[in-house]
Amino acid sequence: MMGVDKLMENKVGEEALKKIKVTRTKNSRIGEIDFNNLIFGKQYADHMLVAEFDGKEWKHAEILPFGPLSVSPSNAAWHYGQAIFEGIKAYKDQEGNPMIFRPYDNYARFNSSAERMGMPEVPEWLFIGGMELLIDLDRKWVPTNDGCSLYLRPFMIAADEFIGVRPSDTYKFVIINSPSGPYFNKPIKLLVQDKYIRAFPGGVGAAKAAGNYGGVMYPTMQARKQGYDQILWVDGLEFKYLQECGTMNVFAIIGNTAITPDLNQGTILAGVTRAAVMSVLEDMGLEVEERPVSIEELVKANEAGTLREVFGTGTAASVAYVQELDYKEHQIRLDPTRYEVGNELLKRLDAIRTGKAEDTHHWNYKVGTYSK
Asked: Is position 349 within any domain?
């Protein structure tokens, strides 16, 4: 794991405090929030972090009251799509202290996405340290109800005020945070897409680029008109091998084996939750396989009675149970009330993230106290 020494010692926040200006809000909005009825991504905490890249270095980093950004209509991000983001969650342990779940994995992936999109790397003091200071300042916004968390959205956009097709010279980095409930509140129905393509080898499918999500809006809308919640994406060559489940990684439990598509083609996002799920499944005694998985394999396993469970994993959704999966004339129907693996998996993940179980994998980053 990247930065494990600093993760254990919490030195990054101290470094960030020397470089980031902090301007507190004068009027907290926390009294307006019903923490018993949180909707994912609808409400935002009091503060945000903003920094600028001038072509050479990151500067003017500040935590300030949440509010609109001033961006020119000629901003290059609007026109040419240089925009990336991450999704991270913070929880409170049993003593009420905020903890960030696996932030260094998101940090590494963010900079990998930046490289693929021709954008500058964000330094550790700004990404990790800035996030820590932000959560410390907004620690009262971290929910404690079951299934709830503080969702953090770091993102970077091009900032050049220039309409010309080239990488921007300047950029803006922002972190906002949102107290959120579950992304899915019920098991989901999937349509296997055999016309549209989410990602292709050599493309940007492995990057968390904004355009990846914009491109799936139309086919997802069409699937929802047919009564489905999400699309199960497959490869663009044969429309056969599983890629992602909506905006999530996908797992199938066949017998006592957990199978998930491998990342070798560069078309699948290397999910942080995916990696955690694989470790927890192994802790549970299941064999975990990363390899090409065809939709026909799921159909045959279902017909043989060995397909036990199918679920999606991601930061926003955590673990999303699949109850229906339709592929051409094949219909797979599963009973999520009997998802023994999924239930135990989610139970163990929640226990680790909230400090109820020992963090043997060293995934939690404990937020320090800097605000006075």
From this structure: no
Q: Give yes or no for a contact between 249 and 313, defined as CB atoms under 8 angstroms apart.
A: yes
For residue 347, the one-letter residue type is K
- CA-nearest of 139, 150, 153, 141 to 33 is 141
Angstrom distance (rounded) from CA 159 to CA 171: 5
Question: Which residues make Cβ contacts (< 8 Å) with residue 305, sequence separation at least 6?
Answer: none
Strands 257-260 and 287-290: parallel
Q: Is 170 exposed, middle or buried (0-12, 13-18, 19+ CB in 10 A)?
A: middle
The domain total for the chain is 2
The neighbour count for residue 355, using CB atoms within 10 Å, is: 18
**Predicted structure pTM score:** 0.95
Q: What angle do CA 65, 69, 71 make, to 5 degrees?
A: 165
DSSP letters for 181-225: --S-SS-EEEEE-SS--S--TTSSTTS-BHHHHHTTHHHHHHHHH
Domain co-membership, 237 together with 164: no
Residue 143: CATH number of its domain: 3.30.470.10
pLDDT per residue as tens digits for the range 240-289: 999 999 999 999 999 999 999 999 999 999 999 999 999 999 999 999 99
- C-alpha–C-alpha distance, residues 228 and 172, integer Å: 37
- Cα 230 from Cα 223, distance rounded (Å): 7
